[in-house]
Specification:
By secondary structure, the protein is mainly alpha-helical. Helix content is 74%, strand content 0%.
C-alpha cells in the first residue's frame, strides 16, 4: 500500500475516535483538524518531484525574480504575482508549495466544517473525486478552486460585491475560474433560476447526444492544440463518474418530495444548481480531459451536497422507522468505506497526476 491509501484509513480512525467525544461541536472540530492536518502533511511536505506539473512550475518560479515576469510570465497575472512576491522574499519552491497546501487545507477545513452535514463523507469524497490528488500537480487551479470556496460564502449570503471581487481574484490565478460568475444569477435570481431549471432539462439531451460537437467547437476556440487527437466518440466511455453525478442530481431533485422545507434552504438551492452544472460539464468530460479539469471547480461543491442529501434522507427514514434508519445509515457508511478504499487503490495505480512514487522533501 502507498502512503495515499493509508490516508482514508486514518481519516476513518479519526472519525471513530472523535465519535466518542460527547460534545458534537468539539468532535466535529477535532475531526476536521486531524483530517486536514493529515492531508496537509502528505501534500504540503512532499518532494518537488511529486506531481506531474510541478517541474514546470518550479522552473517558472525560479525565473520570477524580475517584476517584468508578472506581466510577461507564461501564466495568469495573479499566479505570476504570487510567485514573484515569494521569490523576492527568498522563499524557495519547496517552502512555496508547502504554503500553497497550507492555504488550500485551511480554506477546505473551514468550508467543510461550516457547511458539511457529514464531515467524514466529505473527506472521503474529496479523495474519491480526485480533488486531493489533483492538488499535487495543478498549483494554479487548486489555488483558484480554494478561492472559489471563499466566494461560495458570499454567494450564499447574496453579497454581490464581495462575490465579484473574490471570483475575480480566482480568475486572475486561473482564467477558467471565470465560469463561476454565472452561478450568482442562477442561485440568487428566482426568475433566472426558474428559467434555467426548465431549460436545463431540455438542453441535457442535446449535451448528451451532441457532446462531441460541442466539445470540438469549444476546443477550437479556446484550446486548439487539444484537437490533435480529438475523437467525436467517448474517449473514456460513459463510466461511474457520469452515473454518480446523475444519481446526485436526481436525488437532489427528488429531495423536496421527502423534505418539503429544503426548498427554503439557500444552501440546498445553491448546491442543486451547482450539481446541475457539474452534471452538464461531466457529460462532456469523456470527450476531453480539458472538461474534466474544468469540472473540478464544481465537483468540489459535491463533497458538501452528497452529505447534505444523505443526512436529509436519513432524517426522513428516522421519522418513519428508527430501525430502518439505523440499518440504512450504517450499511451505507460501510459500503461507502469499502467503495472509497477499493476505488482509491485502483485510482492510485493509474497515477494520473504522477504522485507515485512518493517521498517527503
Amino acid at each position: 500500500m502507498t502512503i495515499y491509501e493509508w490516508i482514508f484509513l486514518f481519516i476513518t480512525l479519526y472519525a471513530i475516535i472523535c465519535s466518542f467525544i460527547p460534545d458534537d461541536k468539539i468532535s466535529r472540530l477535532l475531526f476536521t483538524i486531524f483530517s486536514s492536518l493529515h492531508l496537509f502533511i502528505v501534500q504540503g511536505l512532499r518532494g518537488t518531484h511529486v506531481g506531474g506539473d510541478l517541474p514546470g512550475y518550479q522552473t517558472f518560479y525560479n525565473l520570477t525574480s524580475n517584476f517584468d515576469k508578472i506581466i510577461d510570465g507564461q501564466f495568469e497575472i495573479g499566479y505570476n504575482f504570487i510567485s514573484y512576491i515569494f521569490n523576492v522574499l527568498h522563499i524557495n519552491f519547496q517552502v512555496f508549495i508547502g504554503i500553497v497546501s497550507l492555504f488550500v487545507f485551511l480554506i477546505l477545513s473551514i468550508y467543510i466544517y461550516k457547511y458539511s452535514k457529514n464531515i467524514y463523507m466529505s473527506y472521503g469524497l474529496y479523495l474519491y473525486f480526485g480533488l486531493y490528488d489533483f492538488g499535487f500537480s495543478g498549483l494554479r487551479q487548486i489555488i483558484a478552486m480554494s478561492i472559489l470556496l471563499i466566494s461560495f460564502k458570499f454567494l450564499i449570503e447574496k453579497n454581490l460585491v464581495k462575490f465579484l471581487i473574490v471570483t475575480t481574484l480566482a480568475t486572475l490565478v486561473h482564467t477558467t475560474a471565470i465560469s463561476f460568475f454565472i452561478v450568482y444569477p442562477l442561485v440568487n435570481s428566482k426568475f433566472i433560476q426558474k428559467i434555467y431549471n426548465k431549460l436545463f432539462v431540455l438542453v441535457l439531451p442535446v449535451v448528451f447526444y451532441f457532446g462531441g460537437l460541442i466539445v470540438y467547437e469549444v476546443l477550437k476556440w479556446f484550446q486548439p492544440l487539444l484537437l490533435t487527437n480529438f475523437n467525436f466518440s467517448y474517449m473514456d466511455g460513459f463510466g461511474m463518474d457520469e452515473i454518480f453525478i446523475i444519481v446526485i442530481y436526481i436525488a437532489g431533485i427528488l429531495l423536496p418530495l421527502f423534505e418539503k422545507t429544503v426548498k427554503q434552504d439557500k444552501l440546498y438551492r445553491s448546491l442543486q444548481v451547482l450539481s446541475s452544472i457539474t452534471l452538464g460539464v461531466q457529460l462532456l468530460s469523456p470527450y476531453s480531459y480539458y472538461f474534466t479539469r474544468f469540472n473540478l471547480y464544481y465537483y468540489q461543491f459535491m463533497i458538501i451536497f452528497v452529505p447534505y442529501l444523505f443526512e436529509s434522507y436519513m432524517g426522513y427514514f428516522l421519522r418513519k422507522n428508527k430501525t430502518l434508519h439505523l440499518f440504512t445509515r450504517y450499511s451505507t457508511l460501510v459500503l461507502f468505506f469499502i467503495a472509497i478504499v477499493l476505488f482509491y487503490h485502483g485510482y492510485i495505480q493509474t497515477n494520473p497526476h504522477k504522485i507515485v512514487p512518493y517521498s517527503f522533501f
